[in-house]
Write a structure and sequence with these properties.
Length: 162
């Protein structure tokens, strides 16, 4: 993939993180906040797949908060980029965090797209995603890698209605 295309894709995902971060937090006043997840949506275009929603953890560690994700997959480049924003609540208040992950596509058919996270030596977890556009669904699994100890887990794509 050309550096310019990757930069454009990363910029698009960064904008998505900012959008979903704003979506998560819809203020009704200084004291109260309503947090909603984005709607679940899986869209396909010529050689590109876009996914919006949130991960609902079925097994493994569940962070205390609400998240939103956007995934963009590019068939020609064999890459998916996931942007995740999370509103973490704790006793001292709340924090808005954002992460981006890059995945290498191993399989792309009309029924599903499968990809594994590209990781570095400092990563403790490797994620894999499966997206099924015709069923409007996606799932994610993760396992620990290297000397790190992390619980394996699984999540499914969910979303709140408009």
């Amino acid at each position: 993939m050309a550096p310019v295309k990757l930069s454009i894709a990363c910029a698009a995902v960064a904008l998505g993180v900012g959008f979903w971060g704003g979506w998560l937090l819809q203020s009704k006043g200084a004291e109260t906040q309503t947090v909603i997840r984005p709607p679940l949506e899986v869209l396909t275009e010529e050689g590109e797949l876009r996914v919006w929603g949130a991960w609902k953890v079925k097994t493994g560690y569940v962070p205390a908060g609400t998240g939103a994700i956007e995934i963009r997959c590019f068939r020609q480049e064999s890459l998916c980029i996931e942007a995740e924003a999370s509103l973490l609540k704790h006793t001292e208040g709340q924090d808005l965090t954002a992460e981006a992950r890059v995945y290498r596509i191993s399989s792309w058919t009309d029924e599903s797209v499968e990809a594994s996270q590209i990781i570095t030596d400092s990563d403790c977890v490797r994620r894999a995603i499966t997206i099924q556009p015709s069923l409007n669904t996606a799932s994610q699994t993760w396992i620990s890698v290297g000397s790190c100890e992390a619980d394996p887990g699984q999540a499914e794509l969910v979303g709140d209605p408009f």
